[in-house]
Design a protein that fits this description.
The structure is a homodimer of 652-residue chains. Chain A has 20 helices and 13 strands. Chain A has helices at 2-11, 25-46, 50-60, 67-80, 83-94, 239-273, 296-339, 346-384, 396-403, 413-433, 440-451, 464-488, 497-521, 523-528, 531-551, 553-559, 564-582, 586-591, 597-600, 611-622, and strands spanning 102-103, 119-123, 128-132, 140-143, 152-161, 164-174, 187-191, 204-208, 211-214, 223-225, 232-234, 628-630, 640-643. Chain A folds into three domains: 2-62; 97-237, Butyryl-CoA Dehydrogenase, subunit A, domain 2 (Beta Barrel), CATH 2.40.110; 242-589, Butyryl-CoA Dehydrogenase, subunit A, domain 3, CATH 1.20.140. By secondary structure, chain A is of the alpha+beta class. In chain A, the strands form four sheets. In chain A, strands 1, 2, 3, 5, 6 and 9 form a six-stranded mixed sheet that branches. In chain A, strands 4-8-7 form a three-stranded antiparallel sheet, with no helix packed on it. In chain A, strands 10-11 form a two-stranded antiparallel sheet. Chain A is globular, with a radius of gyration of 28 Å. The two termini of chain A are 30 Å apart. In chain A, helix 8 packs antiparallel against helix 9 and helix 12 runs antiparallel to helix 13. At the A-B interface, helix 2, strand 7, helix 7, helix 8 and helix 13 of A face helix 2, strand 7, helix 7, helix 8 and helix 13 of B.
Chain lengths: 652, 652
């Protein structure tokens, strides 16, 4: 499927990438819009399924101006609109007659949704809502697809009915004329300007000066204002959203693996090609320059990241499986409960929802950990390419810049750790009351609690199972430490944020290690991979685990999970040996990710190794700056004295 | 002085920054060239000294097309040219009649200078050199100012005389016509294309197809080919360069402080303005949203970096002082030796050169450590600004992108650590033979060696002196460990690179801690600062030291420098208390760096706190994308249906 879609994309001129790295923002945005339009037309022409369309978008690999229409606007209407609203707005959105965005974040408010300042005031006389931005800081900001593209917005605003505020609710608001595409009266809208990356997207701002929308424009599946009584009515809580967020975060975890894999592929291939210096201890007959990937200082940077790509992929996949299984089970429970009025026993329902609660909390921590690993790992890959990593042609820098916001959106990576800690504290309190575990988190906490006075002895260098147990032990230790600080010592929440951050990280690292290990032991992997490949995957598991353990050495030591000697051996012996063992397979392992050269768009990461030829071709043949002849002398006011083909014309 | 020059720059239209963040590469390069020219004219008009000119360049704060002419081309001629060559090439370069660059790095060779492929073959018949690029990988690459601007290059090429290679030597080569500025025959030159940053500079490539230059074009102060005998002659070694490199690296250390200070200033000011969420434990009367800087999770990211800005500044300054004093002393020694034929005693000369050797090695490690702290610290600052940190208007992203190559040039930060380790191993071997110290490195190694069997007991939480001693102990411990691996266990060099990296980091951290501490105890600081300020500086020292110690906890523990309990207390108690104590002074401390708003060019870092007004103004008034009205519908082939003021015209 991937190959077929790739062939279609490659044959369309609009997807030609050769000017991507050279173009300024205007050209890049214009081209991105053209590509988005073409993707829609191709989708219709080839009758792509949603999955096929997503594959195509992923292959194009750049954020585009329809992005938030596709993801958030349509999904919000589908999830929070009534059937009538879905008919009216959803259908038009599906046909791209209205193009929307999701306007939540404000200039002054990001993470704290409760603090949003935009208001939607109910007018009982004419049964409308007045949408208003009372201050400059109430301006919607960062809203993807809003800057230039959208003509509708789903606006999150504080609902006010008869002087009382009911918190943020979603409103569908037209913002631009359907014909002229000019902003409507009393709507101030525009693009927020250039960013560190993501410049193919028109993130926008939006201010309302008392704009009225009809009653039907408040998405009313879960709550509404009764137009007859003027009362606020709640139809139940949007618990689905709870699940959706968990799903979105699981996707981020899995994506983090492939996002990082691009950088690791480029850096590994290049470091296998690039030769520099001689090995000081090499025998006489090998006195040529050494491939950079043979240096342990390069291996220690790249190979644990290679291991991380698989660890994150398997973890994300594991979470998604667990989520789906659990959804299925809960649906069954619901069905059986409906058919049998006495219903399922409490332990069954509890179990289902406890697993969902566990998944929700762990997805927060894992989102933070995995996107941090991917973002920071990409920069490590870029630097491992030496000077050439700094060239746009490396392909890593632009990719990194576009990925970076993932560390902030869907929950800021630092903020999220509080949710994980809160959940772990709650679980620990539950275990102290009743040690019978209801999910994996209470299982490890309960086990720790039962053994804490006896202590532990993990053979981290000899047993893979013990590695997993050591990670569980350290996370549990930190949980009960934090509990002591909060519940016994009554420390202020703010004083514990740093501890919570560490705790969340420790628990999430445990989850990645555990998921990776579970996959390697599963029947599925035994069927789908050859024994030699499984051996290598096991070594990747060990490398990822021991390298992480060694980086966090003092926490493992303090918790008693490892001895000083074990940590020293992990570093100086076990990790170094694993690097040696994995090195010969490194290139094949990155190849297994299967990135096409067209997708990577990188001189350094070319599969055929023609690194320098490609760098040279792009610089000397494609680079528009080389069409310019300057006047270099300070006394001359002339800057560009000659420009081949003229200067400043559109590149399109 | 700074204020006076700043006023001049602000009054010149060419230095207007308002379009910097919006422009594409062509416009940015064009504007940068215009600014460089104007700076030269201003320098002449105001008769600026070199220092004044440098201040002006720093205030403009962007890399420019004359950059490598000023720094490397002119300096190389001055340092390695004969008086005749200085007269001929140096004078013309000073007058900007010839504009040069320094062409060393090649497409296939960066760090390994010995491996360069460009050749300069001596022709005994016509007394010329033939400069040639035998392969594509021999292409000069990354050469600043070469792409479009320079008409001359100082080319490093392998000197070949009568079939024998004598290693890389510098040759002055004309590459473009002085009138037309077109490349000369058999010279292939151009810009290497866009980069992660530094796009106002025209880094270039350069290939020679057997280009002849006369005998006088080989810079001949230290070695030459005798035109009569055709023999290679050496006039002594360029030991000055050894000193120059040390000087350059000291500059990088000091600059790292101010580079990082920009990011810390922006982030600290913004986090003091930005309010988000309530403090969960705040009393009822303080229920408004809390300034982000009050959250410990923000403090732990920013305040140790604030401390690092001072630590790096003082360390760089300390190194430069030491270097200058030592140069002075060596000159005196030389003079006295000349006047007194029997000369100074060996301990005196030894001492002088041992301090220089020490400075050279430590400058390698400190360059690596400080530029890594600054580069990674800037990214931490950017993220601490939340979502808005991603906007170019934060001013941090562009600054970070431009700074990043510092981690690679003047010695790749990973490569450099080998030189430090090599030096430390040598010093440790010397100490084992003769424990009498000759400089600070041998002093701490010797002290460690005398105490290693007795052990140590440092009161890191009670005594600042003991903190410094603990850092010395850990660095010494790692040195002797590495020595054991290399000399006793005969481990291959390649297997030890990771240990060497850690060793270099440990030793460099010790040096920063020690320098910071020494400055705080010096008479100079007592005279120039008030007692309350000194108290705060001391707290910054403690924060930087204990935070670093806690980050590297396991090494301190393993070396025996600290107990498990001390490391835990450092983290949970000492560091958290210091954050609390420093927080009220944070804004004043960043203000003391004295960055003008014009210099920072940041919405978030504005001194007057008008963060949101400025963001909004830039987005809605300055942003050229908002002049575009798009046609958003997929069926329409029109992309931009209206562009106010036309599209694609030069912004100049």
């Amino acid at each position: 499927r991937k190959q077929r879609i790739l062939a279609i994309l490659k044959s369309e001129k609009v997807f030609d990438k050769s000017q991507n790295y050279f173009s300024g923002r205007m050209e890049r945005f214009e081209r991105a819009l053209a590509r988005e339009k073409k993707l829609q037309l191709l989708k219709r022409k080839h009758k792509w399924t949603l999955d096929e369309f997503r594959t195509a978008s992923e292959l194009v690999g750049e954020p585009g101006p329809y992005g938030l229409h596709e993801s958030m606007f349509r999904i919000t209407i589908a999830g929070q609109g009534t059937p009538e609203q879905q008919e009216k707005f959803g259908k038009a959105a599906e046909a791209y007659k209205i193009i929307g965005c999701y306007a939540q974040t404000e200039l002054g408010h990001g993470s704290n949704v409760r603090g949003l300042e935009t208001t939607a005031t109910w007018n009982s006389q004419d049964k409308t809502f007045t949408i208003h931005s009372p201050h400059l800081t109430a301006s919607k900001w960062w809203i993807g697809s809003l800057g230039r593209t959208a003509n509708y917005a789903c606006v999150m605003a504080q609902l006010i009915v008869e002087g009382k505020s009911y918190g943020p609710h979603p409103f569908i608001v037209q913002i631009r004329d359907m014909k002229t595409h000019e902003p409507l009266e009393n709507v101030h809208v525009g693009d927020i300007g250039p960013k560190f990356g993501y410049n193919t997207m028109d993130n926008g701002f939006l201010l309302f000066n008392n704009v009225k929308v009809p009653h039907e424009n408040m998405l009313a599946r879960f709550s509404q204002v009764d137009p007859k009584t003027n009362k606020y009515v709640r139809h139940g809580s949007p618990s689905l959203i709870y699940g959706t967020l968990t799903w979105v975060r699981s996707t981020i975890v899995m994506q983090a693996g492939s996002v990082l894999a691009r950088g690791v592929t480029i850096a590994t291939r290049y470091c296998a090609i690039r030769r520099q210096f001689q090995d000081r201890d090499a025998p006489e007959w090998e006195k040529g320059e050494n491939a950079v990937l043979n240096y342990t200082m390069v291996q220690i940077r790249l190979l644990p990241l290679l291991a991380a790509t698989f660890a994150l992929h398997f973890t994300g996949k594991g979470m998604m499986n667990l989520y789906q299984e659990n959804q299925k089970r809960m649906n069954q429970t619901n069905t059986s409960r409906e058919s049998n009025k006495r219903g399922a026993g409490p332990e069954e329902t509890e179990s289902g929802s406890d697993i969902l609660a566990d998944l929700h909390a762990t997805s927060c921590g894992l989102k933070a950990l995995s996107s941090t690993i991917a973002a920071e790992g990409l920069e490590v890959c870029r630097r491992a390419c030496g000077g050439h990593g700094y060239s746009s042609f490396s392909g890593i820098g632009p990719w990194y810049s576009d990925y970076l916001p993932t560390t902030t959106w869907e929950g800021d990576n630092y903020m999220l750790t509080q949710q994980v800690a809160r959940y772990l504290l709650k679980s620990a309190r539950a275990v102290l009351k009743n040690p019978t575990p209801t999910n994996d988190t209470t299982r490890i906490l309960s086990h720790f609690q039962s053994r804490v006075n006896i202590g532990c002895a993990f053979d981290i260098l000899g047993s893979d199972e013990d590695i997993v147990a050591a990670f569980a032990w350290r996370a549990s230790f930190l949980t009960f430490e934090a509990l002591k600080h909060r519940d016994e010592q009554k420390k202020p929440w703010n004083d514990l944020l740093v501890d919570f951050y560490r705790l969340s990280k420790a628990h999430s690292q445990y989850l990645v290690i555990k998921n990776f290990y579970d996959v390697l032991r599963s029947g599925e992997i035994a069927q789908s991979t050859s024994p030699p490949l499984r051996t290598i995957l096991l070594k990747l598991f060990q490398l990822f685990a021991l390298h992480t353990l060694e980086q966090e050495g003092s926490e493992f030591y303090v918790s008693g999970a490892c001895s000083k000697h074990q940590i020293m051996l992990a570093r100086t012996s076990a990790v170094m040996n694993l690097l040696k063992e994995i090195r010969p397979h490194a290139v094949r392992l990155v190849d297994s990710w299967g990135f096409d050269d067209w997708v990577l768009d990188s001189s350094l990461g070319r599969e055929d190794g023609k690194v320098y030829e490609d760098m040279f071709y792009r610089a000397s043949e494609l680079n528009p700056l080389n069409k310019v002849t300057v006047d270099p002398y300070p006394e001359s006011e002339v800057l560009f004295k000659k420009v081949e083909g003229g200067y400043g014309k559109s590149k399109l």
